[in-house]
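Q: Give me a protein?
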Amino acid sequence: MKKNFRLQAIAAVVGAVCVALLSSCGGYPRENTLKIYNWSDYIDEELIAEFEEWYQQQTGEEVHVVYQLFDINEVMLSKIEKGQEDFDLVCPSDYIIERMLSHDLALPIFDDEFRSFPDSINYIGNVSPYIRGLFSKLVMPDGKNPNDYSVGYMWGTTGILYNTKHVSPSEVDSWSALYNPKFRDKMFIKDAFRDVYSPMLIYATTMEMRKRGELDGIKELQEFADRLEKACIKTVEDGKMTKSLSLISTCEQPVILNSLDFIKAIRATFESLQG
C-alpha cells in the first residue's frame, strides 16, 4: 500500500509532528516521534537535541526525532515508493516533488491544525516569495499546488569548484573541463544522473561531432555541431524551456514546454540558423 508523506522544509519542521500514526519508534509513541529523511550535511545534527528541548519548552510536549540520511534523490524516492518507511518530513529536489505529488505520496502541509500553531513556532510566513513563485510554475495533476505540499529549503545550480592557484577561469568555463587531460584523476564529481551525467552526455555529443568533423576534415559536420550548440542556447535564451529549466532561469515569463515540444523548438531554432 502506498503511504502519504508530509513534505516540509526544516524551517517548518514543527508542523510535521501533527501527523498521527499508530506505530511506535524505539519505545516512543508514534504521535510524539518526528521521522526525517534528509540529505547528508544539510544541517548540523547537534541541532536535533536542541530542537527536541526547544519544542518541549514551546509546546509542553515531548518529541523524539528519528533522523536518516540519503545521498541521491532516486535512493530516497525508491525507499518511499516501496513503503519501507513512514517519514513525516523529506527533503527532495523539485522534480522528485512532482513525481511524489503525481503518485499521491504527499499530504498537504497547511491543514487547520498546522494553522493553529502560535507564531513563535510557525515560520511559514518567512518562506521566500520568489521561491514560492518558482514552485507555482510546476504543473501538477488535479490542479495541485506544490506550495501546499512543500516549502523551499535551498536552491542553486550545478557548478564547478576549482583551486585558483592551479586552475585558470578559462580552463573551467564549460563542460570541456571534464575532458581536459590536465585534470585526469584530480576530480571529484557528484554521482547524480540529472545534475551531472545528462549535461555531460549532451556536451559530449556535440563535442564528438565537432571533433569527428575536425579529424575527418568534414567542415559541414563541424558547422553542424556548432549550430546545434547555438540552437540549444538560443532556444532557452528566447524563453522556451522545460519546467525544470524554468526553475533556474531568470526569464520572467518563460514558455513552458514538455520534452518533445522543447526538442521541436530547438529544431526550429536550428533550422532558422541555417540561413
In short: Strands lie at 5-6, 24-25, 28-29, 33-39, 64-70, 89-90, 106-107, 240-241, 255-256. The mean pLDDT is 78. The longest helix spans residues 193-215.
